[in-house]
Design a protein that fits this description.
- The protein is α/β, with parallel strands linked by helices and 314 residues long.
- It has seven helices and twelve strands.
- It has two domains: 210 residues, 3-Layer(aba) Sandwich (Rossmann fold), CATH 3.40.50; 73 residues.
- The strands form two sheets. The chain has an eight-stranded mixed beta sheet with strand order 3-2-1-4-5-12-10-11. Strands 6-7-8-9 form a four-stranded antiparallel beta sheet.
- Strand 1, helix 4 and strand 2 form a beta-alpha-beta unit.
- 33% of the residues are buried.
- The protein binds S-adenosylmethionine (SAM).
- S-adenosylmethionine binds next to strand 2.
- The site of S-adenosylmethionine has 17 residues, from strand 2.
Length: 314
């Protein structure tokens, strides 16, 4: 995930910049709890598993926001896991013991080595790492087995015509900590670049660039191009939905979390939508929720032995 040589050369902590630029972990931890509670009224989730965890910031926020919780964070990159562990210990103190870090491939990590999860979160579009239909299908079947009986898998996705065109979005980031133990860092510039989309394979090449103060040379600015690079496959909602059903999930829903600033607090929406609402949007992000339990009659699903991948039709 990290262009480590660049981090060493520049003396800049790229994961720290990434955390402030693209993550809202306390919001995500709250949204994940609300999703579970809306799907299973009267039940309280306690175990969060974060796959492709990177900074593991959601797992940390999950533990920081309520007592009596457990979290598991899985990532295969050793230096990233070590960074996340140091951050968790700094922010959570003794409570960091409730966070189990696993340095491994997500498909190699399952109960009983880790607790069965009430919520398995795969956010920041990490499902797009799985570029082959068979790889996606194998992971979703594995995810089904890693969940508690009422467990919910939460993915997110982006799309729309604008997601397929080369573009760069530049933002000034001014870190504003929400946990009392987290320190702010100075403002910096963050750019999300979609460099190339191949319509045939749906492979997409995305980059993150930063511009920040040079710690070695006060007054100078460092231009950190390609701090992170992602070679993803832009799955469609239809492809993911069909793969989730094939993996054995009983309920699959598309959710949006949107904010219309005009009516103030009343403009916040979080809930299930008809996937067709995405069709006219130039660019959208959405969550895909998959539950082992049917939302119709509460019946439990069975894991699928299906080995076929999702259809490649959008
Ligand atoms: C987009 S990044 C981080 C996403 C994370 N949810 C976040 O918000 O920071 C994805 C991470 O997935 C990890 N990763 C990629 N493929 C993986 C796999 N098969 N198993 C475990 N980790 C993986 C990378 O090492 C990287 O740290």
């Amino acid at each position: 995930m990290v262009a480590r040589s660049q981090r060493d050369k520049a003396g800049v902590d790229l994961l720290e910049l990434y955390r402030w630029a693209v993550q809202a972990p306390e919001t995500h931890a709250t949204v994940l709890r609300l999703m579970f509670e809306r799907l299973h009224p009267g039940h309280t989730p306690t175990v969060l598993r974060e796959d492709f965890a990177g900074t593991s910031a959601e797992a940390v926020a999950w533990l920081a926001l309520a007592p009596g919780r457990q979290a598991v964070a899985v990532d295969l990159d050793g230096p990233t896991v070590a960074w996340a562990r140091r951050r968790a210990e700094r922010l959570l103190g003794d409570c960091a013991a409730a966070l189990q870090f696993v340095e491994a491939d997500v498909v190699a990590t399952a109960p009983p080595a880790v607790p069965a999860a009430h919520i398995l979160s795969v956010l920041n579009f990490s499902i797009l790492y799985l570029r082959e239909p068979a790889q996606l299908q194998a992971y979703l079947q594995h995810a089904w087995h890693c969940l508690a009986p009422q467990g919910v898998l939460v993915l997110n996705l982006f799309g729309g015509p604008a997601a397929k065109k080369p573009r760069s979005d530049r933002h000034l980031i001014t870190p504003q900590p929400r946990l009392p133990t987290e320190a702010a860092i100075p403002p910096f510039e963050y750019t999300w670049e979609q460099r190339h989309f191949d319509a045939r394979t749906r492979h997409i090449d995305c980059r993150i660039h930063f511009r920040t103060a040079d710690p070695a040379h006060p007054g100078r600015v460092l231009d950190l191009r390609d701090a992170f690079r992602y070679r993803w496959r832009l799955w469609t909602v239809a492809e993911l939905t069909s793969a989730l059903h094939a993996a054995g999930f009983a309920t699959v829903q598309v959710w949006r979390h949107t904010h219309d600033p005009a009516p103030g607090g009343a403009g916040v929406f979080l809930g299930a939508v008809d996937p067709r609402v995405l069709d006219p949007l130039a660019h959208w992000t959405a969550y895909v929720l998959a539950s082992r339990v049917s939302s119709e009659d509460g019946s439990a699903s069975s894991p699928s032995a299906a080995r076929s991948g999702p259809s490649s039709a959008a």
